[in-house]
Every structure is written in structure tokens, then in C-alpha cells.
Amino acid sequence: MLEVRQLTKIYNEQNKVENISFSLQSGQCLALCGGNGAGKSTIIKMLIGQLTPTKGDICINGKQVQKDDKHWFSFMPDHLQFPPLLTGYEVLSLFGRWQGATAERVEQCLQLVGLTNDQHKQVKTYSKGMQQRLAFAQALLADAPLLILDEPTNGLDPYWVWEFKRLIRTEKEKGKAVIFSTHMLSIVEEIADTVAFIHQGQMLVYDSVSTLCQDGQSLESIFFAQLSQHMAY
Ligand SMILES: Nc1ncnc2c1ncn2[C@@H]1O[C@H](COP(=O)(O)OP(=O)(O)OP(=O)(O)O)[C@@H](O)[C@H]1O
């Protein structure tokens, strides 16, 4: 459903993301991995139309995506600032109104992320993990074919990381495609079908997780091996 070709953003000579190509089918999950400053958020910002690519194509079902064409994805940013005085329920209802979600869907999403009991508390009283779960609920509201999540497990405790993985599997079973960025490679091994390893704006590895890990190697050891090869030049 999604085809990305030669996606490039040149901020300046030192800071750039170049020639990123990948494809994604419905029901599949792609993880974007890489160190700090590798280029993951830049790729995501180009996908969601927040940054104009220097060059490259983004196509959905064979058609080039236009800058303001947003109905094909739901997005969870890495930092989502909520109005602090509103309750969780009020925040999600607002997002629901913008996205055309029903009141029932709002309640369903609050329940999926475990915030039903806290829905009438002001967001300023939420912990970091609770705010992160509210941001995830916001991305689940709409019925878009692709979920794009920027570091969705930041601040989640082990139980909610486990729940996040379960929810993503459910979205995949419903036919949703998922792209997420993360530093947590164990999560990638468990829920992603393909992985792109970005280093200094270049895609060093792009392959299926099962192929990469077929000899029992972990993604961590595979990526470190790639990194040391790359740094040796
Ligand atoms: N607006 C900008 N102007 C210039 N350079 C930028 C800009 N935004 C990001 N960069 C640079 O582009 C590169 C990629 O940054 P990006 O935020 O995409 O990395 P990331 O992989 O998401 O990092 P992290 O894991 O730390 O969030 C970095 O070198 C960064 O300094």
C-alpha cells in the first residue's frame, strides 16, 4: 500500500537524510531504528507532510501523496503537548471531533490504553506514561489504513510496553499497516515484519526481521556489526 522511493531531506551539508526507500503492505509493520540524530524523525516528518522532501516520492496505492493529503495515516508524535487543564476525556473528545470519531470510539480508545478510571482527571495530573498512552489513544481514534508512531514506547512501564505490542498486533490483524521508530530493539523483534536501520541519514540495513534473525542473532548484534563496519571506513 505504501511505497517510498529515494526520500531525501538535505538540511545542510552535515545534516541530511538521503535516498530512503521502502515499501509496506497492509497488515505489516516497519520499524525505523538508529541512534540519536540518525534521521528517524526526519523520515517520519516527511511521511506526514510536516517537512517537504528535497527529493523522493511517497505513493499510496500507486498514487503520489500530496502535501495536505492526511486521511491515509494516523500519527502519534514523540512529544504531544495536551492542554493541561482539560481532562483526558475532554482531550480525546476534541481529537475525536477533529478526526470524525464517535463518542463510543473515544471511550473505546480510553479503555484500550487503560485510562478509563482516570479519564476525568486533568491532563496536568497525568504521569509521563499516562500522557504517552493518551497520545497513543489519539492515534487509534481514526480508522486510517496506516499508523505512524514516533517513539511510541517512551516512558511506558513494562506492562504497558507489553500492552502496546498486543495492541499493535491487533491493528495488524485488522489490516492496518504500522510504521514506528524506536530505540528498543527487543520490541522490533517481537512486532515488526521489516526493519530499517538508519545511520547518519543513510539506510544501512533494510530487511525482514525473520531473515535478519534467522541464525539466532539478535538485532542488537546485527546492528552493532553493521555500525562497526561502517565506522571502519
Ligand atoms: N530543522 C533542522 N535543521 C537542521 N538540522 C536538523 C533539523 N532537524 C533535524 N536536524 C538534523 O538532522 C539529523 C536527523 O535528525 P532526526 O531528528 O531526524 O534524528 P532521530 O533519528 O529522530 O534522532 P533521535 O533518536 O535523537 O530522536 C540530525 O543530525 C539533526 O541534528
UniProtKB/TrEMBL annotation:
Domain of life: Bacteria
InterPro entries per the UniProt record, alphabetical: AAA+_ATPase, ABC_transporter-like_ATP-bd, ABC_transporter-like_CS, ABC_Transporter_VariousFunc, P-loop_NTPase
SUPFAM superfamilies, sorted: P-loop containing nucleoside triphosphate hydrolases
GO molecular function, one term: ATP binding
Keywords noted in UniProt: ATP-binding, Nucleotide-binding, Transport
Chain ranges of the ABC transporter domain: 2-225
Gene3D superfamilies recorded: P-loop containing nucleotide triphosphate hydrolases (3.40.50.300)
Pfam families tied to this protein: ABC_tran
CDD domains tied to this protein: ABC_DR_subfamily_A (cd03230)
Full protein name: ABC transporter ATP-binding protein
Organism: Anoxybacillus gonensis
